[in-house]
Amino acid sequence: MAATVAETQPATTALSAGMASPHQRHAGSALSTDSAPQPLPPTRSFKLSDFKRVRTLGTGTFARVCLVRPASATQPLEEEKNPEVYALKILKKTEVIKLKQIDHVRNERAILADVAGYPFITNLLGSFSDNESLYMLLDYVPGGELFSYLRKYRRFDEQVARFYAAEIVLVLEFLHERQGGVAYRDLKPENLLLDQEGHIKLVDFGFAKRLGYKDDRPVETYTLCGTPEYLAPEVIHNKGHTTAVDWWALGILIYEFLTGYPPFWHQNPIEIYKQIVEKPVIFPQEPVISDEAQDIIKSFCTIDRSRRLGNISGGAGRVKAHPFFNGVNWDDMLSRRHRGPIIPPLRYPGDDQCFDQYPEEDGTRIPYTADMANRYDPYFEDF
């Protein structure tokens, strides 16, 4: 799981500071305490005592995801035929406030509730809070990060890349065109998990935002967020961006699937930004990338977003019709009729071996004071 960096400076200052490392993320200011928050969609409510932790699956700057079981479970996981297991995302209120992520967290919670049940997105089962933390109960996706498999195999052949890209196209079509213009804004291999049948699940909606439309045009937003290698030029220029940033990121992702590395890379993030806005995508001689794959990558990674595939007239339909996806049965893909090309090596239901090991919490935390509660509880009470 990639680390998260929260940045509250204006974009131009943040970029010149060069403070992020590769695969870290910049988040713009996400705190609006000058107006009452919009109510969150209802979900099932739980309490922490309903569960017991198995272990940590991943950590971020202010969040931790843990594998949990019902508190009443007694048998070892490996002995249960159909164990009840979940992923519990835990966000410390003090860190959310400190990093000015209140709006981002509320956006994530609201959008996950609205998209619950979509086959290629992590499923929010419920949410709750206590005095110290916010919690989101999610379905457990046992196969681990797609990034781990890409690292293991070094690169994917075109058939494998096409399969995962097609499932991502369906996700973006759903978010952009059927959910009021939701921009995901953090597409990368670390945020794609594999389920037991080898299908992707998009996770971590911390930077997702419902932009909506005005006069049939997508509303722009200006928050600097994402991972350096996948940022679209308009995000770097801070000229306002829309859902078009996700199509750019998909082009970068397909390139990385096929080569094992992103097209724009440097140890210094500022140099990555310069490459993105100044240089075209260059393809290596080895491995050989097909003409169709090169064309769809270049069509996604078009600096002028008015000409970017996915953002032009026809939307995701034009993407599906691209020659790179010839032979894809989109109905079969949506219904998950066939297993994925990589099947995770799971020994039993509830197996956690596909996730890296992380140190558990040491119990130290900044207290959530009464003064903080008086000021910020209105933003957490309906979580």
TrEMBL record:
<dbReference type="InterPro" id="IPR008271">
    <property type="entry name" value="Ser/Thr_kinase_AS"/>
</dbReference>
<keyword id="KW-0547">Nucleotide-binding</keyword>
<dbReference type="Pfam" id="PF00069">
    <property type="entry name" value="Pkinase"/>
</dbReference>
<dbReference type="InterPro" id="IPR000961">
    <property type="entry name" value="AGC-kinase_C"/>
</dbReference>
<dbReference type="InterPro" id="IPR017441">
    <property type="entry name" value="Protein_kinase_ATP_BS"/>
</dbReference>
<keyword id="KW-0067">ATP-binding</keyword>
<keyword id="KW-0418">Kinase</keyword>
<feature type="region of interest" description="Disordered">
    <location>
        <begin position="1"/>
        <end position="45"/>
    </location>
</feature>
<keyword id="KW-0723">Serine/threonine-protein kinase</keyword>
<feature type="domain" description="Protein kinase">
    <location>
        <begin position="51"/>
        <end position="325"/>
    </location>
</feature>
<dbReference type="GO" id="GO:0005952">
    <property type="term" value="C:cAMP-dependent protein kinase complex"/>
</dbReference>
<feature type="compositionally biased region" description="Polar residues">
    <location>
        <begin position="1"/>
        <end position="15"/>
    </location>
</feature>
<dbReference type="InterPro" id="IPR011009">
    <property type="entry name" value="Kinase-like_dom_sf"/>
</dbReference>
<dbReference type="InterPro" id="IPR000719">
    <property type="entry name" value="Prot_kinase_dom"/>
</dbReference>
<feature type="binding site">
    <location>
        <position position="89"/>
    </location>
    <ligand>
        <name>ATP</name>
    </ligand>
</feature>
<protein>
    <recommendedName>
        <fullName>cAMP-dependent protein kinase</fullName>
        <ecNumber>2.7.11.11</ecNumber>
    </recommendedName>
</protein>
<comment type="similarity">
    <text>Belongs to the protein kinase superfamily.</text>
</comment>
<dbReference type="GO" id="GO:0005524">
    <property type="term" value="F:ATP binding"/>
</dbReference>
<dbReference type="GO" id="GO:0004691">
    <property type="term" value="F:cAMP-dependent protein kinase activity"/>
</dbReference>
<keyword id="KW-0808">Transferase</keyword>
<feature type="domain" description="AGC-kinase C-terminal">
    <location>
        <begin position="326"/>
        <end position="383"/>
    </location>
</feature>
<dbReference type="GO" id="GO:0005829">
    <property type="term" value="C:cytosol"/>
</dbReference>
